[in-house]
Amino acid sequence: MHYASLSQQVKHFLTASCLLGAAGVAQAQAVADYPIRPVSFTQVKLTDNFWLPRLKTNTDVTIPASFQRCEATNRVKNFEMAAAKSGKFATTYPFDDTDIYKTIEGASYSLSLYPDEHLKEYVDALIKKVAAAQEPDGYLYTARTIDPAHPHSWAGKERWEKERELSHELYNSGHLYEAAVAHYQATGQKNLLNIALKNADLVCSVFGPGRRAVAPGHEIVEMGLVKLYRVTGQAKYLNTAKFFLDQRGQYKGYDFKSTDEWKNGQYWQDDKPVVAQTEAEGHAVRAEYLYSAMADVAALTGDKPLLAAVDTIWKNMVTKKMYVQGGTGAVGGGERFGANYELPNATAYNETCASVADVYWQQRMFQLHGDAKYADIMEKVLYNGLISGVGLDGKSFFYTNAMQIKGGLGTKDTEPARSGWFDCSCCPTNLARLFPSLPGYVYGQHDKDLYVNLFVSSTANLTVNKKPVQLVQQNNYPWDGGLKFVVNPAASTDFNLLVRVPGWARGEAMPSDLYTFATPTKSEVVIKVNGKPTAYTLRNGYAVLPRKWRKGDVVEMTLPMDVRRVVANPNVKDDLGKVALQRGPIMYCAEWTDNKGKASNLVVPPTATFTAAYRPELLNGVTTLTATVPAVQVDAAASTIQTVPQTLTAIPYYAWANRGKGEMTVWFPAQIVDVDLVTRPAELPGTGK
Ligand code: FUB
Ligand code: ZN
C-alpha cells in the first residue's frame, strides 16, 4: 500500500487498526496514486484582478446569502426537526440537506482565504445542528429522520430501498464527505469530519460484497469516500467507492431495448458496467461526478480497464458533446447529455452544476495524464460556461446556461432571468463551494516537474525537488496575453517549469475536431527567461523549461490575443454556417442591450474586422469586441427587409444577463441564406394593439 502522497494530516489518523481495516473488503488495493499531485488551495494566495474580486464576492455575498436562504427556506429547520424527531419535512427535495453541506464547504475554503471569526462560529453552530440530526448509528438524512413513519415520497419506506432511483441518501452522504474534508483541511477541526466518518462507517458496513449492493442513484458518494480515504488512510472507504463503481450495469430490471433513458438505465449511467461505458451519457451532473470518481479509483488502484473507460468517455464528450463555451448536458428532459453532436442552441440546458462537476473531472484527468488538453477544457469551463452561472452581484444565478435567446415576438416574458435561489437550488451552492477552491487548480507537481495550468496572479509557496520555492504570477489575464512568472527558490534549485501553452494559442479551438478556428494562428508563443527569448520543447501542450532556478528568475510568455472566429464540426447541425467569437480563453456573445435591442439579426461575414477594447466601466471591467457588420432590419411598415451596416458589440459570454432581459446569441450566421418570417399576432392590423 502506498501512502506517500497522503498529507501530513493523515498521519494523525493512521493507526494500526486503520491499516488493518481492509480485512474483508479488500478488493480495492491502493497500489498507486495520481502521478501528478495538485498543489493545495492553502498554498496559493491569489492577487488576481479577475478571480480575486469574484472570490471576495463569493465570500461577502454568495455564502452569506446561501446560508440565509438555507435558513429562510427551512433547510436548517429540517435538521432541527430531525434532531427533535418531530415535525414535517419542510422543503421540497430529499437532497435539500446538501445545500447546507455545500455552503459549509464553500465557507470552509473561504475561511482559509479570509479568516472570519463570526463565520467560523456560525459554521460551528450549524455543524452542531447537523450532528444533532445524525442518528446514533451514523445515518444522516433529514427527509427520513424527522418522521421515519412518513419519509419523503422519494425516500422509500426503509432506508436505502430507493437509493438506485431517487432517494439521494448516498448523494447527501457524498456532499457531507466533501464538505467535511474541506472543513478539516481549511480549519484543522474535526467536528464535521467526525460526523462524516460516522456516516461513512455506516455506509461501508451496509454496502459491500455479501451485503447490500446498489449503484448510487446520484453519484458523488464515490468521490467523497475517496477523499475520506485520503484523509484517514482507511482502505474501507476506497473499497466502498470502488464497490459502488462496480455496481453499475448490474441491475436486471431495466428494459435495455427501450430508447427511454429512464427505462434503460442510461439516465443513471447504469446501463452498462463502468468499464464498458464509452459515451458521456445520462444526467450530466451525475455523469461527471461518476467520471471524476472513476479517475480517482483508477489512479489509486491502477485499474487499467477503468482508466481506459474514463479516457474513452472523456474523448466522446470533448469530441461530440460539449458546447463551445464549455457547457455540458445539452438536453433539458433528464438534464442530460444528448446524442453525439446534439448541441442545440435554442434549447441548450447546460446546468451550472455540470460545469462545476466538469472542473473536478478535468483536474483529475490532468493529474492522471499530465496533458494540457485537460487544463484547456478546465479553463474553457471556468472562464465561460461556469461563471456565467452567477450574476456579477454574486446573488443571482442561472441554473441553465442558454446559448441563444431570441425574443422575436417582442415579449421578454419567456426569456430567462437570473434568480436568487431555486426550489432545487443545487447550482448556487455548488458555485459557492467551487469559487473559493480555485487556488487549488492553478498548479500540479510531479517529482521535478512543476506544472502551471491556470494563469492567475498569485503567490504560491511550494516545495519543489525538496526545496522551498515561491512562484509569483503577475498578469492581467484573461484580457492581456502577457504573462510573468517570478521564481524565488530559497536556494538555487533544479526543476522543470512546465507552463501550459493553451491550445487556443497553438491554433486549437478545442482538443478535438468539435470546434476549430476558421483561420490559422498567426502569432507564435514567445517565452523569455530573464529577458532573453528561450527555445523550449513542447511536451503534451506544456512548454518545458528545465533550469537551475535562482531567486528572482523571471519567465515571460506572450500569448496571441487576436480575435478568432470559431466554427463547429459540420455534424453540429445547429451551428452550420455560423461562427462564434473567441479572444484568449474568453468566448463572446452579443446581447440586445449593446446592439440596438436585438442580437438575432446580426451577421458576421468573413470580412468583418473586430477591434478589442478594455472597458473598465462595463460589467465590472471587460474587453469588448466591436466590428461593423450587416444587421437585418425590417422597416417600420413591416413589409421590407434589408441589411444595414451596424456596429456589433460582443461581450464575454459569462457577463450576459446582468443588465435585464433580452436577446443574446453566441453563434452568428456568416451569411444570410434564408429568412424565418415571424408573425406578431398582438399587433395585427385591427387588433388595436
Ligand atoms: O438531484 C440532485 C441535483 O438536482 C442534481 O445534481 C441536479 O441536476 C438537480 O436535478
Ligand atoms: Zn445544479
Automatic annotation (TrEMBL):
<dbReference type="InterPro" id="IPR049174">
    <property type="entry name" value="Beta-AFase-like"/>
</dbReference>
<dbReference type="Pfam" id="PF20736">
    <property type="entry name" value="Glyco_hydro127M"/>
</dbReference>
<protein>
    <submittedName>
        <fullName>Glycoside hydrolase family 127 protein</fullName>
    </submittedName>
</protein>
<feature type="domain" description="Non-reducing end beta-L-arabinofuranosidase-like GH127 middle">
    <location>
        <begin position="450"/>
        <end position="561"/>
    </location>
</feature>
<dbReference type="InterPro" id="IPR012878">
    <property type="entry name" value="Beta-AFase-like_GH127_cat"/>
</dbReference>
<dbReference type="Pfam" id="PF07944">
    <property type="entry name" value="Beta-AFase-like_GH127_cat"/>
</dbReference>
<dbReference type="GO" id="GO:0005975">
    <property type="term" value="P:carbohydrate metabolic process"/>
</dbReference>
<keyword id="KW-0732">Signal</keyword>
<dbReference type="InterPro" id="IPR008928">
    <property type="entry name" value="6-hairpin_glycosidase_sf"/>
</dbReference>
<dbReference type="Pfam" id="PF20737">
    <property type="entry name" value="Glyco_hydro127C"/>
</dbReference>
<feature type="domain" description="Non-reducing end beta-L-arabinofuranosidase-like GH127 C-terminal">
    <location>
        <begin position="563"/>
        <end position="669"/>
    </location>
</feature>
<dbReference type="InterPro" id="IPR049049">
    <property type="entry name" value="Beta-AFase-like_GH127_C"/>
</dbReference>
<keyword id="KW-0378">Hydrolase</keyword>
<feature type="domain" description="Non-reducing end beta-L-arabinofuranosidase-like GH127 catalytic">
    <location>
        <begin position="43"/>
        <end position="439"/>
    </location>
</feature>
<dbReference type="GO" id="GO:0016787">
    <property type="term" value="F:hydrolase activity"/>
</dbReference>
<dbReference type="InterPro" id="IPR049046">
    <property type="entry name" value="Beta-AFase-like_GH127_middle"/>
</dbReference>
<feature type="signal peptide">
    <location>
        <begin position="1"/>
        <end position="28"/>
    </location>
</feature>
